[in-house]
Amino acid sequence: PDMGLIETKRYEGFKATGSSGFMNSYPFDPVGMNSPDMAVKEVKNGRLAMLAFAGFLTQALVTRESPLANLSAHMGDPTNVNIFSSVSNIQNVV
Fold first, then answer.
1. CA 92/CA 83 separation, integer angstroms
2. pTM flag (> 0.90)
3. Which of 93, 12, 21, 28 is nearest to 58 (CA)?
4. pLDDT of 56-90, one tens digit each?
5. pLDDT tens, 15-63?
6. 86 and 62 in contact (C-beta within 8 Å)?
7. Class of residue 13 by CB neighbours under 10 A (exposed 0-12, middle 13-18, buried 19+)
8. Any idea of the CA torsion for 80, 93, 61, 70, to the nearest 10 degrees?
9. SS3 state of residue 1
10. Preceding peptide of 36 cis, ω within 30°
């Protein structure tokens, strides 16, 4: 019941103001970060996160191990377990 009330108030505020908020605070910005500059930074951060995730997927496909297993192997032997050894081993993966 409490969540329904909060969501109803949020939706009513969105219809009235066009921005998301919480209860009677529209837009909800408790730390004063609602600016066009911060919106650009948020989009850039999201794009960087998507690129990092694509890197994790590629790494898992090439090495057939998890990123944490690869990190552990690299930390144990950084000169022999790195991107160059993975790329040189690509013929055994494909």
1. 15
2. no
3. 93
4. 998 888 888 898 999 999 999 999 888 888 777 77
5. 888 877 777 777 777 787 878 898 899 999 999 999 999 999 988 888 8
6. yes
7. buried
8. -20
9. coil
10. no
